[in-house]
Fold:
Amino acid sequence: MLIEYELFKCIAHERIKKLKNETYKKKHPKQKQLKIKSKLKHYDYEEERLRFAHKY
Structure:
């Protein structure tokens, strides 16, 4: 169980890093950048964990 959780944290962390990189690579208007940043700030780990649990 602990190993699965560590794996999940690693996957979630990589996904957040990927999202952040995508936002800065694309040239968005300032307003859209702020929306994306707020999405990242309120990233729902519990929802992600449940989604991960259903896959495996």
In short: Residues 2-25 form the longest helix (24 residues).
